[in-house]
């Protein structure tokens, strides 16, 4: 028997229509590339998105065509989110932190037709313009007054504001098939070529509902949200969509992600909630600490993309009263998979025990299903101890990469298709998942796994440590042993002996790193994550001091 309810496709355009009608006067504040603060509202943004949809169509972009951006978080980028996807084309957010060769490769692979870019990326666009095969128009996201002089390197240089002004604001969002493609993001490609995750209107709207929930990212019309996570990194974790759905005020930081710029914006705009990777919060915390500042309106921040060190959580929560929400996801999951919210039974826990729960990546948001399996695909116990490869499925999880790149990514377990995340995790009896490693970062010592994340978290709790990465070093007896690579905080004199002693009592003796290497910088990738593959390359053949004296081994 068929139900008798309306059939209404889930479309991205419905989000901006909703925000325009019901939160029309709510502000969107952007720090522009030019340095000034710009203010608009959902009403204006919706109108300009319709104009832009006409302008994009006039550039020859048709249904399903890819439109690329190289842009920071700002209102023009948000207009593109709605104008491009809403009109049936596909928004492709390129990551400007990638090497130009990679940007060219990805733009060609995606067959991008038009490129919209912020002024700050002019040199990058000049470097790639003659090399990209399919881009036929280049649009600078600025007004006439700030347009660069005609560039011989870039044919067809257009001005964003001129396009918007010249276009009509009469545009009816098409009633698309909800399964049609809406946006495209490439994974950072730590192995092989980058691969594209192609989202649909349906997957995006469902992800938006789920991500806004109180035990997910917990967003409402009472919030002022500042997404630090870039709009070129998995759609800023969905915040440009969530903000429209709930009608939150949005504050965009543009390219200014240093501690002072962010803190000024938090305070001046009354920001209540933010989101970003751990590395960006380090700069903010250092600025706040050094200048003895506080957060007067910030209530919580989402931290994900890499494991959030408990020391960072403690600083935010105990010192500044900012609740940390640890979340896990990936490009292939749109990105949200789990969020770490506490249950009523955790209310009585002391700080250390509460932090131990919060250090986990959390429980699935409704819609996502997950399990851990062994090497044969057999499900493992949810006992918080047994670790295995994490598999996920759900309506916003990919089933195939763009153009079938890399073959069929799914695996069959218990008769159903799952996406293997490449993460190694435990799941406890309450359903809290904890990532212990990515499968390629795992350290395998004498046949047993050592969690590099646990080791990094302890090292990061040392007051003299700015950043810590734990990688495997070759060992003739144990195959691999943990090697800790550390950058010191300014003025810190922490040495090897002090740091290794810091592990005493905090970890099984045989998990203690065999050595510490102090470096000036730990390489970060295009999404702010530590590039352990680079460190492994730099330290290949590293001679552990424990090679001669099996002291650590004897402790097992
Ligand atoms: P890439 O896979 O190219 O690095 P993603 O941004 O999609 O790009 O990263 C997803 C991966 O990031 C996850 O598979 C996981 O390894 C890691 N990750 C994300 N969030 C967390 C977290 N909270 N804790 C630990 N690792 C995380």
Radius of gyration: 24 Å
Sketch the major β-sheet: 9 strands, mixed
Strand line-up across the major sheet: 2-1-11-10-12-13-14-15-16
> CATH homologous superfamily name of the largest domain?
ANL, N-terminal domain
CA-CA gap between termini: 63 Å
If helices are DSSP runs of H or I spanning 4 or more residues, what is the number of helices? 17
* Strand-residue proportion: 15-25%
What value does the average pLDDT take? 94
Structural class: alpha/beta
CATH fold annotation of the largest domain: Rossmann fold
Number of domains: 3
What does it look like?
By secondary structure, the protein is an alpha/beta fold. The protein has 3 domains: 317 residues, Rossmann fold (3-Layer(aba) Sandwich); 73 residues, Luciferase, Domain 3 (Luciferase, domain 3, Roll), CATH 2.30.38; 113 residues, ANL, C-terminal domain (GMP Synthetase, Chain A, domain 3, 2-Layer Sandwich). It is 28% helix and 24% strand. The strands form 5 sheets. A 9-stranded mixed sheet has the order 2-1-11-10-12-13-14-15-16, with helices on both faces. A 7-stranded mixed sheet has the order 7-6-5-3-4-8-9, sandwiched between helices. Strands 17, 18, 19, 20 and 21 form a 5-stranded antiparallel sheet that branches. Helix 2 packs across helix 3. The chain is globular, with a radius of gyration of 24 Å. It starts with 12 loop residues before the first helix and ends with a helix. The C terminus is likely disordered. The site of adenosine-5'-diphosphate has 21 residues, from strand 14, strand 20 and strand 21.
């Amino acid at each position: 028997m068929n139900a008798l309810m309306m059939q209404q496709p889930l479309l991205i355009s419905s989000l901006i229509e909703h925000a325009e009608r019901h939160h029309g006067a709510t502000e969107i504040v952007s720090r522009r590339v030019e340095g000034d603060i710009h203010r608009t509202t959902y009403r204006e943004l919706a109108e300009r998105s319709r104009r832009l949809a006409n302008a994009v169509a006039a550039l020859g972009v048709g249904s399903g065509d890819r439109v690329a951006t190289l842009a920071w978080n700002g209102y023009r980028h948000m207009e593109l989110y709605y104008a491009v996807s809403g009109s049936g084309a596909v928004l492709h957010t390129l990551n400007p932190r990638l090497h130009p060769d990679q940007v060219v490769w990805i733009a060609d692979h995606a067959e991008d037709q038009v490129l919209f870019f912020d002024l700050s990326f002019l040199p990058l666009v000049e470097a790639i313009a003659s090399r990209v095969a399919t881009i036929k128009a280049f649009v600078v996201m600025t007004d006439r007054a700030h347009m660069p002089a005609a560039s011989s390197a870039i044919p067809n240089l257009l001005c964003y504001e001129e396009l918007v002004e010249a276009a009509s604001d009469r545009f009816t969002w098409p009633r698309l098939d909800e399964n049609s493609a809406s946006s495209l993001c490439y994974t950072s490609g730590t192995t092989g070529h980058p691969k594209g995750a192609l989202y649909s209107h349906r997957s995006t709207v469902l992800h938006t509902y789920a991500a806004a929930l109180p035990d997910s990212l917990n967003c409402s019309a009472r919030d002022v949200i500042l997404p630090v996570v870039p709009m070129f990194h998995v759609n800023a974790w969905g915040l440009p969509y969530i903000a429209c759905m709930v009608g939150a005020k949005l504050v965009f930081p543009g390219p200014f992600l240093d501690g002072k710029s962010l803190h000024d914006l938090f305070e001046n705009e009354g920001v209540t909630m933010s989101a970003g990777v751990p590395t960006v919060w380090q700069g903010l915390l250092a600025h706040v600490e050094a200048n003895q500042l506080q957060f007067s309106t910030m209530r919580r921040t989402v931290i994900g993309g890499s494991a959030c060190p408990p020391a960072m959580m403690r600083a935010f929560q105990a010192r500044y009263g900012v609740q940390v929400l640890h979340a896990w996801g990936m490009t292939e999951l749109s990105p949200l998979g789990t969020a770490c919210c506490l249950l009523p039974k955790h209310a009585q826990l002391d700080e250390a025990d509460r932090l131990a729960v919060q250090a986990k990546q959390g429980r699935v948001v409704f819609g996502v299903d997950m399990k851990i399996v062994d090497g044969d695909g057999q499900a493992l116990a949810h006992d918080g101890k047994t670790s295995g490869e994490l598999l996920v499925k759900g309506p916003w999880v990919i089933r195939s990469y763009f153009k079938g790149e890399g073959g069929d990514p799914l695996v069959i377990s218990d008769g159903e298709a799952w996406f293997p995340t490449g993460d190694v995790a435990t799941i406890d009896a309450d359903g809290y998942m904890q990532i212990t490693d990515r499968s390629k970062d795992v350290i395998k010592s004498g046949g047993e796994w050592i969690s590099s994340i646990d080791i990094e978290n302890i090292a990061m709790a040392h007051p003299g440590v700015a950043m810590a990465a734990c990688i495997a070093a070759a060992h003739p007896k144990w195959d691999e042993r943990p090697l800790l690579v550390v950058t010191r905080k300014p003025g810190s004199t922490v040495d090897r002996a002090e740091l290794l002693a810091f592990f005493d009592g905090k970890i099984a003796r045989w998990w203690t790193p065999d050595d510490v290497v102090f470096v000036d910088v730990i390489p970060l990738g295009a999404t702010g994550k530590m590039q352990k593959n680079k460190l492994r390359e730099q330290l290949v053949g590293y001679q552990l001091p424990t090679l001669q004296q099996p002291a650590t081994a004897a402790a097992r």
